[in-house]
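Forum: Protein Structure Q&A
Topic: Joint prediction for protein chains with partners

I've read a bunch of threads here and the consensus seems to be that you should model interacting components together rather than docking separate models afterwards. I'd like to see that in practice. Below is the full input, 1139 residues plus whatever partners are listed. Could one of the regulars post the assembled result?
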Amino acid sequence: MSTSSHQDAPESAIFRSWATLVVRYRWVFLLMTLALTAFMAKSAADIKVDNSVEAFLSDDSEASGALEELRDLFGRDDVFLILAEGDVFSLPYLTKLRALHEEVGAIDLEIASLGQRRRDRRGGASTKKPPEPAAKAAPTAAPAGGDDFEDSGDDDFEDGGGDDDWAGEKGGSIVEEVISLINVRDTRWEGGGLKVEGLLEDPPTAAELPALKARVLADRTLVGQVVGKAGKHSAIVVRTDFMSEEDSGLVYDKVLEITAKYESDDFKILVGGSPAMNAALNRMMLEDLGMMFMSAILLMLLILGFIFRHPIGVLAPLVVVVFSMIYVVGTMALLGVSMTMMTNILPAFLICVGIGASVHIQSVYRDARADGIANEEAIIMAVASTGKPILYTTMTTFVGLLSFRFASLSAIQDMGTFGAIGVTYALLHTLVFLPVALTFNKKSLLGRRSGGKTTRIDRFLDWCNSLSRGHDLPTRRNRSWKTIGAGALLVIVAVVGASNIGFYHDPVSWMPEDSKPRLAIESLGENVGGTSNIAILMKANEGENLKQKALMQGVADLQDHVLAYRSPDDGSEIVGNTTSLADIVRESWRAMNEDDPSYYVVPSGTPDNPDRGVVDMVTMFETSGPEDLKRLATVDMKQSVIMMRVKWLDAYAYNPLVDHIEEGLATHIGDKADVKITGTVHNLVTIVNSLLGDLLKSFGMAFLVITLMMIVLLGDLKLGLVAMVPNLFPIALCAGVMGFTGIPIDMNNLLIASIAIGIAVDDTIHLLFQYKAHYTAYGDVDNAIAHAFEHSGRAMASTSVILVAGFLVYVISQMNNLQRFGLLVSMTVVFALLIDLIFAPALMRIVYRDKAPRAQERSPA
Amino acid sequence: MTSRKTLTQRLLTSLALIGLAAPGAALAVSPDETDARAIMQAVEDREDGDKTVSRMTMVLKDKDGRERKRSVQSRSMDFKAGSKSILLFEGPADVRNTGLLSIDYDDGAKDDDQWLYLPSLNKSTRISGSDKSGAFLGSDLTFADMTSRDLDDYEYKILEQSAKVGDEEVWVIESRPKTKKAKDETGYLKSKLWVSKSKLMPLQIKNWIIEGKKIKLMKFSNIKQIDGIWTPHKLKVWTKKKKETLSTTVLSWKSFKYNDASVKDSDFSQRALEKGVR
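Posted by a regular:
Agreed with the consensus. Here's the joint model:
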């Protein structure tokens, strides 16, 4: 096979002019690039990380709206949970628990983002209300007589507006609330009267412990909330104010530091809850980002070193992708977009996707240099002949990534947007920095072997081509059909496998099995009710409030209905605990009736007012536990929440539970109130139920737009349509492998189809662009294919090796989802290359005819 | 001075104490006084009146303007071992006739007696237990805000010898709890008080709430002399965090009478409680 075909390659006048300009003013372009890179690097340093469940949902989605409403009304729903294992009802355990409770409750950290909601930080609709205007009215007489509740002014507070915050004052705690066995609300009948206080506000004596144990473990409001069923675990619930993910990580560190002091064999501690899990995931992500980035760079150094064997040939493509990565992270930071579990794949992704264009340019450049062409002209020629296919391949990858804008999940949308921006940056640097860098190469042929020497890659390419090449037309067509047939058979098998693919979303499963946050979440699920929550927001009908017997009874029945739910898989309990206004009403009524368990019911009231019992119990509670009440109902008693603590499961497994709750709502609440389901679990379910739709929408859109682009780019309807066939093969094969090996579709591998088509199509474009130019000129199918293999085959193989190696870097990630993603994309890239080199030529040989009988003899290969 | 008060004790005694009544004449300290402790002692030593009858409305608002309203009538009187108080809900209609009765003993070692009357039970129930959050009727006020404090548990310093609140000349005094007990009781890291030099009562107070790093502002206004005792008829309380108002409470006294001859011992019985609003 000849190794020089650059002279036959079609050139673009625009790219020739561009390359000439860049080469002529190389210092200007270089300095501009460096200056802009410095600015972007400075911005990139401020990038934020956000792995919360909400980060996956767009701010204007219904699910996000309901969650924000929950937080507006009742504060933060995601809490730190400290699980302590030991003999709970023993004095040493309770002494430690009390000390830990107090120390955690006194955490004092300087938290810059304290009080900030996620939506505020993202620059969306503010959740903050404007400060209450201070009335300037002069003092007036208090309203006299009647039920006049009007405020009569006098709102000025001297010095009130100046330093209402803590202004650096030390000593306050950023913790809003700590609940454990020590202070959990306990309403009971004692000493001939009602007693409302923290459960263990007065430390119990050893003699009191057995009775305490029996009473606590029989209380359904406590078991699953602060204590495990067996009395071997208890939990401290720590609720802080809203803050950024980074600051939440600082609180997590502080909690870990404090708990470490109390850890012992008879007091084993694990720290879980959503903020802990997010902090742990963020940390892993940052560690992974650094590690994967460095590994990808090292790998690229090795591969580029092997291919180009000269510092410029190795470093120039690397600088192109590193600059692109800096630009894209800098752009995200400038726009206030956080790095999420989706966008964190971008740096390593850009390194392997962005490097392909440089490899193509340098391959042509070194061929031209080997043919004795002067350095600057070789650069210009390489850019002029490769510019168009590079632009086209960038456009298809851009479209593949941008198709994620059609997804409903904001994390996927962001990945698409910034991925597309990233490949655009990579194109710009390839067309600016790379030519500038090559002007500094005076002598090297960048690893180009001496003319005519056949390499392993050449032999591999030749073998691929030979599978559908014949010595005469009938043989050629026969072989092509067989090749296509084999491919079709493979695809059929793959489709059968793909039909078994399931959907899955479980951020906890991303963490290594022995990681402490994962163990904590699992242990909390097994022993203390779980770490997830489902919230049901309830709003009284117009003109009514929630203090109605019928409604409270409905809520109580709904809670019983939910608590009775069992996993359809193994019959295990999923809902550990529920809390509502109905609990307060029932426990107060029971206590008012001397703790008689038969009074754990919604009271009936007076003969003339059936609601009076509920009203009285709520009134009694208003005077005793306003903080508890604030978490469950608004001050006007028109809105309320039912909180349910549930075990952490894969999001898909929550679907039957949500159906069960909806069934309960229809039966027990009906039209008595407006209800809305929200909370972490509900959002996870929303996410997982969006996956299939997002996959189909984004892939469908990518496929459609790329097909149209292929037709336009290749200027040929038939070739454009045929070109898309081999691009579906690798995706079908990947789906088949996933189906047969039981890998489900999750947030990350959802991206594979669109990314793969964006990447796979690059090879097809390079191949068919050259094929079409040669076939148009000479009309010979075999020779046109041979020319395309010669011009682009080695670069295609090289870029595929780079892509495979680059995506395999994800395997070293600590997170299982990224490992799977890396493996699957690598595999798809290999499929894409093989299919482009084996099936695409076979297709060409079937679809196209030689234009003239003697063409073969006339046309150069 | 301050005993460990239970929720209802504080609730009942507060209505008398919140008057922050002070004798209109014979100020115990001069306006030039520079000793913060002496000023606070003078504030503490005020006459708070006896046999009081009052009617009050309370409006609690959350940050979004949702409201809860209550109107209550109360009576209180001193007796040899302490004080008695009764509080009856007048409105809104759904809570009318809910009532609380408290016998508060000066002897901190002795448990106070409290009864709660809920119409649905049709009998009064004795209640006890310590106050978890310390909030008065679920408002922004804690009972600690309204009970007298043991001055020895705090250290005071004058921040400004002379300042103004409206037209009134005030001392600006900082108070910090010296003991853990005092800190736990109020939940405040420190307080800043604007004490009127002419009335010897705080006109406004700013408290730094330890839990959750919040700020609580209290402003007394519509101050009138009743039987020679300066009595504020309105108290507004803001709970704030980082300049955002989380909630407000406005207490307005429609009437306030000291030494009312109609207040008698039999007003403070379970029977009177069960009889409801008169």
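The mean pLDDT of chain B is 80.
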